[in-house]
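Reviewers of the previous submission asked for a worked example of the structure-prediction workflow described in the proposal, so we include one complete record here. The input consisted solely of the amino acid sequence. No template or homolog information was supplied to the procedure at any stage.
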Amino acid sequence: MSKINAIGITILTALITSIFSFTIDLETKSLLNDRITLKVPKEFDIMPEEMTKLKYPSERRPTLIYSDPSGGINVALNLTQSRANQQLIEPYKENLVQTFKKLYPSAEWKSNGITLVNGRKVGYMEIVTPAIDTEVYNLIFFTDVDGKLLLCTFNCTKKSISEWTPIAKEIMNSLTVK
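From that input alone, the workflow returned the following structure tokens.
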């Protein structure tokens, strides 16, 4: 009987571990006409234009969006026309923090700062913002590419934060400007 109990406990432990383990495979993509590389979840595809227009109704939507099949978890990139260089990353961060605090006064701020990623200054903000029927976790990170400001955003619903936050940070820390 003790062998059966031991086998049962082993199977139960394996089952519980597999249920609660969350792994996402990332693949490195060369993006923006080979100007950067960034890791993106393998299961993500480029968001279809119809879904992009619904999710981002403003004409100032990101230029490239990778999404899970539901459209609920995204990695978006926008190479803006704003001039930028490494010296401007700190002022951009300060400006974006102030702008988001005004736009979303009820947002929950997790962190913001400047970090060094693959030899480049990258500004970032980590916030949870209100949405119509939920709250959305956003990791917004940015640097300069060819004299322009590159804005990248990872977002998911609040219920997915614990699983996706480490992955979002891995995505940010994979950014390489060529």
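Confidence is low (pLDDT under 50) at residues 12-21. We consider this example representative of the routine output the project will generate in years two and three.
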